[in-house]
Amino acid sequence: MIHHERKYDMKQAPIISRRLIAAVLLVGLFSVPAFGATDEAEAEVEVEIPTTLQPYNVRVFVAIDDNVEFQLNFRKRILAELRDRCDGYWGRMCTVSVEEFPRLFPATATTLDRLAITHESPEVANCDKAFFLTLQADGGGYLVAGKCWDATTRETSEVISSQVFRRSDIADRLFGLLSDLFEPIVEIADFDEKQVTLQIRAGEFLPPDPSQAPLKTGRLLTPFYRFITREGDVRKIQEIPWTYLVVTDVDRATANCSIVSGLRVPLTTRRRRLIEVLAQGVRPKFDSTRLKFVSQQFTDHPMFGVTVSIVPEKSETTAAESTEESTGEEQAQVAKPEPVTMMTDRAGTVTISGDGSNKPVMLAVHSGKSALARVPLVPGLEAEAEIQLPDDSVRLNVEGQLAVLEAGVIDAVAKRAVLMARARSAIKANDWKSVDEFLERMDKISGPSRMQTELTIIRERGVSAAMARKDVSAKRRIERLCSKTSELIETYLSLDKINQFREETAELRKALGAK
């Protein structure tokens, strides 16, 4: 078959057809926007969604052990039940996807602990939180375990696990792990010295189950900075050390917190566009925390023999009991509970046990009478922590030399007192030869001028050593210690008593006509 091509000539078309085509072209010309107009219109329409209206994008990966009783239908049912519980408990607060995770093999808590997750892992792409769960047969029951990766902090939690004895409880226990691992992210909107105001992520989407509310009164959070590049990538995440936020009240998406910190200025007042000031909920997961104290100058040098005191906070109950009707002694017993004091061992460590309140306690660290640090700590939040203290070796060296010098002062005072007593006894016995001997021996005892000279040498050496380390605090402490020792020397080694005794002895000698 031969196909013929038919050419359409506009000149041969009817007049009405040519007019119709021209009209269509004109309509199309005016209806097409100018180049770039679409992009500008879309840019104008784009509005940044507030943090409080941003739901969490959550991905849940469940690795089920290759066991004969975990058949395909059972696996599908577990995933479906877990998805239903996420939707039922969290509601619009989270957009959840649940899928099986065959990559983890064998599906055990041990392999889950070894699973490395980073921000480049494909499983965590385009999500705010990724949960990894395992289900395995364990004796007559089942063992479920899980851990969470957070996109905001780029950190992976510790693995937690739970025992299940009935198949019907597996989905509930898996969601229980999700609930225990879920830590809210909040934005620090405003703050002053005592209070911080937070904007809660997805806070306007109240969960159907009130127990799943992201923040409650008494909840503990730790603040941090996120440094963002101009392209929107995370450049650095910086934790704010020894600083905690404790929720005092919550109103939907807004919460107020008290701030507990060992820093003078824990939060910066300067806000920059590429720096986000955020906080994350935390919970103690250990029974105690092992604290190690090291030197700031030499981090491999443990600070042993340091006194650590847990200063108890005055509770509302204690304050209520301390009324005006109570006696002064009763008020002192109620208002000032005894601090728990311990001393670091040879490794520079102490163990702080938790009391179950999940509240920060204040630690006062001293070296002798010198205060080195005052920091808050939540026992059990970390298994181990390290605190760097100013190197107090210079002050300790000076303090040791001053102790020797003060011992010399005490010895000199005691010898003077003994010689004066023996001289008085000799005067009563009219033994003036012995009196002269005792007075001569008193003159040989170190006086205040010699002691002050030794003190000056100790002070100058100590101050020079402190300034060589640029330790202004140690310099002030050394000068304060030396000033107290100087007052001690002038008070107890004053020559006024010796001169007065000499004058009395001379008058008695003259009155008795002795030579």
Automatic annotation (TrEMBL):
Keywords per UniProt: Signal
Superkingdom field: Bacteria
Leader sequence residues: 1-36
Record's keyword annotation contains Signal: yes
Spans annotated as Disordered: 315-335
The keyword Signal belongs to this UniProt entry's keyword annotation: yes
Name assigned to this protein: Uncharacterized protein
Source organism of this protein record: Symmachiella dynata
